[in-house]
Design a protein that fits this description.
The complex is a heterodimer of chains A (145) and B (132). Chain A folds into 2 domains: 45 residues; 98 residues, GMP Synthetase, Chain A, domain 3. Helix content of chain A is 28%, strand content 34%. Chain A contains 3 helices and 7 strands; from the N terminus they run E-E-E-H-E-E-H-H-E-E. In chain A, helix 1 crosses helix 2. Chain A is globular. With 132 residues, chain B is an alpha+beta fold. Chain B has a single domain, classed as RNA polymerase II/Efflux pump adaptor protein, barrel-sandwich hybrid domain (OB fold (Dihydrolipoamide Acetyltransferase, E2P)). Chain B has a 6-stranded antiparallel β-sheet with strand order 1-2-3-9-8-5. In chain B, strands 4-6-7 form a 3-stranded antiparallel β-sheet. Chain B is built from 4 helices and 9 strands. Classes of the chains: A alpha/beta (145), B alpha+beta (132). At the A-B interface, helix 2 of A face loops of B.
Chain lengths: 145, 132
């Protein structure tokens, strides 16, 4: 039994060839295609991009929440994510790993430990990566400026 | 929440706001219990009083914020704060790892030692948290 429940809806519509529209109510439409390695034309967002982006964007929004709770001052934050898609004999492809590379710049060296705790908590409480079946690794960098 | 067994050291006194007190003569060292840190989950922020501040029995002396919630810290006794674990504010996660050791918060010079009678021993505190 859950304490709270939210629903999120998206829809797709074929445009032409292997191109589709991705629609989320109230948001601009995006054009999405398969990646070139799966027959797509290239130059468009792909489902694997969106999958990996969902991890990094959710991690980042969780960082916003956790850093606010921690009253942590920072001057910059960015997060790169790399997903690994692998083929399994007879089972097709699946993502086996997403590596998150958050880079946080703080103004005070004394806050390094707390900053580390915030980055770790952001992974622990990230609802998207917690929902993914593949391994998620956290590879943080903390800079002082 | 932790899967390990929560600790309730016998040499400490407790209150129902989940603070502990270790009596050291006229002084008392205070922090929050293993149960409290477990309920709070990952602690991200801690605000403690300055040395010299007056704290009052069962009144807030600080704030703790975790991934889950923000809570006041309640003083188990009245008196003057004579020591503050200031480094803890830079490493609040220490409270999760060692709530009764390095996670101590303040030392109070007790002004009313009779208040100790209202604190409860370990076994009673364990019963209190286990029976909800």
């Amino acid at each position: 039994m859950t304490e709270e429940r939210y629903n999120y809806g998206t829809s797709t519509r074929w445009i032409e060839g292997k191109k589709m529209k991705l629609m989320v109510e109230g948001q601009p439409e995006l054009e999405v295609c398969p990646p070139p390695e799966f027959g797509g034309p290239g130059g468009f967002l792909t489902p694997p991009d969106l999958f990996v982006a969902s991890a990094s964007t959710c991690y980042t929004t969780t960082f916003f929440t956790m850093s606010a709770k921690a009253r942590l001052n920072y001057v910059d934050f960015k997060c790169r994510a790399e997903g690994t898609l692998e083929k399994f004999e007879g089972k097709g492809f699946k993502f086996t790993k997403i590596d998150l590379y958050p880079e946080l710049t703080i103004p005070d060296e004394e806050e390094r430990e707390r900053a580390k705790g915030v980055l770790e908590a952001s992974k622990k409480y990230c609802l998207v990566t917690n929902s993914m079946a593949c391994e998620i690794t956290l590879n943080p960098t903390i800079k002082v400026k | 929440m932790s899967s390990r067994e929560l600790q309730y050291p016998d040499d400490l006194k407790y209150n129902e706001e989940h603070s502990w007190l270790k009596v050291e003569g006229n002084k008392g060292r205070a922090g929050i219990t293993d149960y409290a840190q477990d309920q709070l989950t990952d602690i991200l922020f801690l605000e403690l009083p300055e040395v010299g501040a007056q704290v009052k029995y069962m009144e807030p002396f600080g704030i703790v914020e975790s991934a889950k919630s923000t809570n006041d810290l309640f003083s188990p006794v009245s008196g003057q704060v004579i020591e503050v674990n200031q480094p803890l504010t830079k490493r609040p996660g220490t409270i999760n790892r060692d709530p009764y050791g390095e996670g101590w918060m303040i030392v109070i010079d007790m002004s009313n030692p009779e208040e100790l009678d209202s604190l409860i021993p370990a076994e009673e505190y364990r019963e209190f948290v286990e029976t909800g």
